[in-house]
Specification:
Layout lengths: L1 H18 L13 E4 L4 H6 L7 H7 L5 E5 L2 E11 L8 E9 L5 E8 L8 H5 L3
Antiparallel strand pairs: 1-3, 2-3, 3-4, 4-5
Length: about 130
């Protein structure tokens, strides 16, 4: 009798242990603090260098969090930060950059590390995000 109970407890512990190693769809960011615009790989694939225009980027991602003028280029930035995931995961701090020429055509788009401590959210700033 004790052997069956011990076996069941061990099985439940194994199931819980194995489940904690992955992410559960819909729960992986439960309770996470988020700020900015997260740009997915699918959205990135919809933008084509030397073809997409500013209005195409707005249709796919939305308006940028910030813009900069560097010489003849205009650069749009989509900053995103996420901390405090409930299920095993990692904090995210990234910036998606989209560069345009003088005619408003995308010349390059890419992801970079985010801007630590640049958030208006006090909790995120305290976490160095």
């Amino acid at each position: 009798m004790k052997s069956k109970i011990a076996t069941r407890i061990a099985m439940v512990a194994c199931v819980i242990g194995l489940t904690a190693c992955g992410t559960v769809p819909g729960l992986s960011d439960l309770g996470a603090m988020k700020t900015g615009t997260q740009v997915s790989a699918e959205q990135m694939s919809q933008i084509v260098d030397n073809k997409s225009k500013q209005e195409d980027v707005i249709a796919v991602i939305g308006h940028p969090n910030r813009k900069a003028q560097v010489g003849n280029k205009v650069i749009w930035y989509y900053d995103f930060t996420q901390i405090g995931q409930a299920v095993i995961g990692r904090n995210i701090s990234e910036t998606t950059s989209v560069e345009f020429n003088a005619k408003g055509i995308v010349t390059a788009h890419y992801k970079t590390g985010g801007q630590p401590g640049n958030s208006n959210n006090a909790l995120l700033r305290a976490a160095g995000q």
